Structure formats: C-alpha cells, structure tokens
Amino acid sequence: MRLLHSTTCRLWVIAFLSYQLFFTTFVAASQFDPAIHIDPSEIKRGMRGYGLTVFQGTKIERFDVEVVSVMKNFQPGRDAILIMCDDPRFDLAKGVQGVSGSPVFFNERLAGAMAFGWPYGVQPLYGVTPIRQMLDVQKTGIASKKSLESDRRASMTFDKSYYENLMRETLLTKEDLTRVAKAAGLIKSDLHLNQSKGPVSLLSPSLTVNGLNSQALAVFQEAIPGLSLATGLSAGSGDEGNSEVTLERGSAITVPLITGDLNSAVLGTVTEVIDGNVYAFGHAWNSTGQSAWPMATGYIHTFVNRNNISFKLGTAMNVVGSLLADETAAVYGQVGDKVDMTPVTIEMRWDYIDTVKTFEMQIAQDDSIGAMLAAVSVVNSLLYRGQMPTVHSLKYEGRVEFDRGPALTYSNMSSGAGVQDFVIDMLQPLSIISLNPYEKVRITKVDFRVTMTDQDSLHYIKNMDLARQVYAPGETIHAKMTLEPLREPEYVKTFSLSLPKDLKEGKYKINVGSYLNYMSDLQKTQPQKFRAYDLEGIQRVMQERLNITRNGLYMTMALPKDSIMIEGETFNHLPPTRAMLLDNTSRAKDGVVFGSLLTAHHPTDYLVMGKATFDIVVKED
Fold first, then answer.
1. Do both 91 and 8 map to the same domain?
2. Lowest-confidence region among 26-30, 34-38, 249-253
3. What DSSP character marks residue 212?
4. Are residues 417 and 520 in the same domain?
5. Residue 26 has what pLDDT?
6. Do 527 and 600 belong to one domain?
7. Helix, strand counts (H, E) of the chain
8. Residue 503 belongs to a domain
9. Residue 413 to residues 25, 314, 316, 422, 609: CA-CA distances in angstroms?
10. What are 536-548's pLDDT values in tens digits?
11. Is the C-alpha dihedral spanning 141, 145, 148, 154 positive or negative?
C-alpha cells in the first residue's frame, strides 16, 4: 500500500512538472497569432504595407513601405524581409538608429521589426526581423525572471586568481577593464564592428551619455581603449510630466542607465505588446541573454541626419517595467515589476571660487556595468565646470553601500593627477567587488563630498639623514627628511620609527616613502592577508586598501618571515625545529610564508612622492 501511494505521488509530480513545462512552452509559442501576425512565407515581392514609429515627441506616426524581397537564411535559421520606406522623411534620414524595432505590417498583420540598414546608402532600404523569431525571445525572459527571483542569475565574473593578491598596485589592467566594458555593451564586439563597417549595419542603439563632459569622456577612454560612451542617441529631458505615455506598437522604448543630472539611455522602438509582454529592437542590444534592466517610455526630439547613418535624438521618460531578455532577434520585457536603481549624490565644492553644487542621479543596478556607471557619474560631476586648474588638489570623503556586506568608506586626496586617482579608487575596487566569483552583490548607494583647490600638494623626498646606524632593541629611529614642494623652498622634517624591545640582533632595511611603497612592502611581507576566498574577505581587503591614504609618509621595516599559512590555518613565529615547514614544498602545498612589517605612518597635509632606503644594525647594549 505504501509502495502504491509512493508511486502515485511520483506520477502526480511528473504530471505536474510536465504540465508546467507544457504551459511555459505553450505560452511562448502561442504569442504568434496568425490572425494578427504574418509569417515571411506569406510575404511576396511588391506587397504594400506600412510601418509605425515616433518621428518627434511621443506621437506614433504611420509611413508607407513596400516589400523588395524575402531573404531565406539571412542568418543561420533566420529569415529577413527587405523593405523600402516610401516616405519623404526617410528620404532625408536614410538609415536611422533608434528606428530599430519599428513594426511593419502587411494585410493589416504584423510582419516584424525594422532592424538593419546600409551605411552611406542613398535609398531608405531596411531589413525586417520576422515577428515569429522575436516572440521566441520570451522563453529566455521567463527563465530570467525565475533566476532573478532565486537570485541565481549568471553574470560575468573575474577568475578566482584575481583574488590571490588584492594589494597589487594595479588591481585591473586596461585589458581587464576593456573585457568588462565589452561584456557590458560599452564596446562594440568584433562581430558588431564588422557589421557596421561592412555592407550591412544593425540599427543598434549605443550607450550614450548626455551632459558627459569631454574631459570626463577622455579620462574613461584612456582607461578603457575603445570605450563607446557618446554618440548622441540620448539627450536632455523630454515631456517628463506626461505620465500617460505607454509602451505600444511603434512607441519609443528606452533602457535608462543614468537618470537625473546626467542622462544615459539606450533608445529604440517597440514592435509588439501582448498582455504586458514587450518585444522591441528586432535585434540584440548586448546579446547577454538573461538580463535585468529598467524599461522606460521615451521622448524623441528629432532625427539627426549624418552621411553614414542617422539617429533619433531622444531621452528616457517613465520607468514602467523591466527588460528581462536580450537576444539576437529582439529584447523582451514585462510591464509592471520595476528593477531598482541606485541613488548617487555628489556634493562638489570649488574652494578657489567658493562655489558648491550638489548632483543627484540614479544608476542602473547591474553587476557588470554598475561600477562604470558610478565612476562616470562621480567623475563627470568633478568636471562639471570643465578642465581642472593646471595646479590643483582634490580632497574627498564618501561611502558606497552594497546589498550584501559592509559599505566602503573613502577619505583621501590627490594632487596634480586630474581625476585619474579618483577613477582608480572608484572603478577598480567596485569592479573587483561587483564581479567577484563567490557571491552576487550590487551597489545600492553612492554618496561623495569633494573639494577642489587650486593649490599643489606634492612634496618630493630629496634626501635623508640618520644621526647613526646602530640601534639597540626598543630604541626609536629618527630620520631627517629633506622635502621639496613644487615651486617652494625645500625644508627638513623629522620622522621616527620605534623598534620592538624584543627585536633580534641583525641587519635590517628601512624603507621610507609614499603609500605605493607601503602597499608594495605589505604585499611582499604579508601576502596571506590579501588573499580573499569570499565576498566578506574581498570587501575587507578593499577597505584596508582604501585606508592607505596618499597624504602621508610611511616608514617600514620588514621582520624575518617566520610564519606560514596552510589551507587557511596560520602558524605564527615558528621555532627553528619546525622551520622545515617553510621549505618543505610537499607539506606546504598552497602555503603562504609571511613575516611582520613594522610600520610608522606620519599623516601630512600633502602627498609625499619618492622613496628612500637605508640599512641599520641592531645590537644589544
């Protein structure tokens, strides 16, 4: 009887799962309705029809089209419909980015979305992605929503090897940042570049930033070669008070990445809306598959005509739902549930003109692009007034919060480096945290207060003088440093380092220098502290890294390496009889040998540059 009951339960479970699978598949497949949709097999050369798009404002307008041909297997397993736009507005604009997704109809049935064209074309010839292919993207959207609910959505991550040394001077190289930017859609893929330069070009919306200072753009393009941030598809603000605009066939659709005092959005056109399910673009944005972006209505200012390919100049309006899928044939979203955006506040003070301005923005919460959007927002605020004074310094305090783990706090300064140091402090630690391979985490709040002065704060180490070189344990070393400020007289200042009372006799090396020298000494002496095996460890090391301020002089003395960490367990100050552990590679597998670093930090109001090294001898009295 128990066996029968158990078997019956299994059958019910199998039946239920089969029904769920059938229902999910049926829902996606049933989106194609022959009564309102038309298949490419029914479309013939010369058929007349019409399309819908927004030429200006939010008004959806109709334009006439004619079928040129139907191309089978335009891409593997995918067809395309060629049309000519019979409308004087397209005669002027030719190929138009932002038109992508505009629905095309024949016999009053939806055929698909305008999706590609030809650069430098003299005719308004377009390719249309069939609606049947676009509707299939819903399957990915359903899977994406389930992943979001369980917080298991896959994302780009760095390899665990990146977290074996988090005190290295450069956390991420240009190549690393370029790879991140490409995955986030900030750099066109090789395939996309080939399409743009070749005979066919997708009418793809690029990430664009309105109000981005040209100096700020140059900073990020220097840090990330090939970065594409400004092509003019998003600009200013539209009819923000019009909350009645909805997503429907032919309306403008946007993916707002930054809103507020800085605007960034992806802009295209809606192809189809069925019971709150939205299909748009007729091609991918980033080809990320599952996604989670804010989905908003849009406002079009005008068409901007260029020789190669034109574009719609528009802006995001009201967030009405979330974009859940991004595939070759379309992007797919759902009206209703909205994804959160991260508030960003920057209070900027220009001390030399006694002016203060506060910037308020919101950025998309995406692990692959969140760090970049936060850095772009902050740096653009710094450069709001344009180029920094030739001689300048920055002092800043801030806080970045996450949905998991402690916040990162900032209190630092830079001088003569423009915003490069700020970019390093923002972009690299936040990327290392956001793209970690252990646990999903998102930036939830960014808050900074920055003061810019027209004073230089760099002081260079010219030379150093010791009264003597032999010391007893417990004594204090006093070093006279000659420092040379920019365009000011040099001066002498004394810095000190106290020796431990139990310090063993011997010869020791003392390093004196900037925060970079201190970071290097830390990593060499205590590498075990800067390996991270989980999110908590990463956040701890990043905070310790940010606590090493630039305004100060660091004196260090490395003590003998007499400790080892093996598989997370630490053995400190090993006696000589157990020193074999340090050299036995078969026992010390995954072991890290380390010692202690004697340190004296002397805070200053300026940045110390350069390095000095000297030897001392320690002897008992």
1. no
2. 26-30
3. -
4. no
5. 39
6. yes
7. 12, 32
8. yes
9. 57, 38, 36, 9, 13
10. 999 999 999 999 9
11. negative
